[in-house]
Amino acid sequence: LMSAEKKSFTVRVNAELCKGCGYCKELCPKQVYDFGEEMNAAGYKYMAVVAMDNCIGCRTCMMVCPDFATQVEDN
Asked: Which of 29, 32, 57, 74 is most buried as measured by Cβ atoms within 10 A of its Cβ?
């Protein structure tokens, strides 16, 4: 039996690892990510989590991130 309540996830971007390539934004089926405005120590504008509640836990972002900067955890 499936629970009626939607599973929720915590989505994080490690700002220091992210280079702002946008792969997570392009491939996320639920538009969880967008380009951020803040810069990390290396001078990259890192990705921002803009719609965490939309996350369905597919972890596509984790699979496509070349710098292992995205993290999705079950709540």
From this structure: 32
